[in-house]
Specification:
Blueprint: H1 2-6, E1 11-16, H2 19-27, E2 36-39, E3 48-51, H3 53-56, H4 66-72, E4 77-79, H5 83-98, E5 104-108, E6 111-115, H6 123-141, E7 145-150, H7 153-162, E8 168-170, H8 176-182, H9 193-201, H10 207-222, H11 224-233, E9 249-260, H12 263-284, E10 286-297, E11 302-313, H13 316-330, E12 337-345, E13 348-349, H14 350-367
Parallel strand pairs: 2-4, 7-8
Antiparallel strand pairs: 1-6, 1-7, 2-3, 5-6, 9-12, 10-11, 10-12, 10-13
Helix pairs in contact: 5-6, 10-11, 12-13
Bound molecules: thymidine-5'-triphosphate (TTP).
Length: 368
Amino acid sequence: MEETQRKQHIVLHLDLDAFYASIEQRDHPEYRGKPVIVGGSPDRRGVVATASYEARRFGVHSAMPSRTAQRLCPEAVFLPARFEVYRAVSGQVMAIFRSHTALVEPLSLDEAYLDVTAAVGDLEEAAQLARVIKQQIQSTTELTASAGVSYCKFLAKLASDAHKPDGLTVISPEQAPAFLEALPIEKFIGVGKVTATKLREVGIAHGADLKRLGEERLRALLGKHGSQLYRFVCGQDDRPVEPTRERKSVGKEVTFERDLLDRGRMEAVLEQLARQVEDRLVELDLYARTLTLKLRWSDFQLLTRSVSRSNGFRDAQSMIPLLYRLFAQLNDGHRAVRLLGVSVSNLLSRDEVQRTGQITALTLWDRE
Ligand code: TTP
């Protein structure tokens, strides 16, 4: 046991502090030190994406209706989200992470796990590395991040959350049991509102209670999930850090054996390609904002045309009319086509689409 523990991985979890709000305070010095809320407008039905720490002191938090937030903190400045900027900053931060290890698993724009087992000898060196990364983030982006250092993902994430903002917390295998025993059950992965209520009803409030209950009773209470919870409370989490290569685009193309002249056939091919692109996006659980049509004439001349939409899309149905339009711009109806291609880029995760959609939809609504 001791031996396997020593051989265990070393994982960092880095999370920028009040990400969107800190970027707004960075870019608007007049808002520094003031309560800032990024999200939908309070006039109608906007929600809070995030609040600066000054606003959090009034009880404002993410996903709260902006109107409630305004009531709690009347002097708060409400700002619309600037996703382009947040994405660009995220790119800088992820590049810093990737300069230290290839094993980077982003969880969202401002948060990632890093497996640094190969880069450092022990947790102390890992903490030193976390300090360096925090400094690099600070000097590159003028933002602060909180870091957690431990031997598994679950504990590294809890550690980064332990001393926010600008924190650095190490949880060693020796410290883990006491830390987990004191932890409220809501902090355990998979314990949502329903499970927490169920557990609290039977007097289980902290990790120590979960541990005391034992695996079998937890399993009887929560099913398969109970066993996993028991493993977490014992500090066992063998989920690997899974690096995601940043995919820039998804595309399909076809070269015809015989050049095509028939417009109807060309459109049918575009539809088919759009469906294949949709299938791939669904497989990868990604959305896109830019659609590109590629076309090669029979004389080998290659042309591309793109169109972007601010909201993410992934279904062929929304790509097809845009493709027809791009195609009509390129094709005069007299030339034969040798190749057709459809690709999408400017990719977004489901999480980003949901958040963007929620905020932009409500912002548009607000303006009506
Ligand atoms: P988080 O990392 O959850 O929070 P945070 O960075 O704002 O604050 P903390 O210091 O407590 O980590 O989320 C990252 C960004 O994602 C956040 O700045 C705004 C956005 N977001 C939403 O749009 N909606 C949400 O419900 C949440 C939780 C976050």
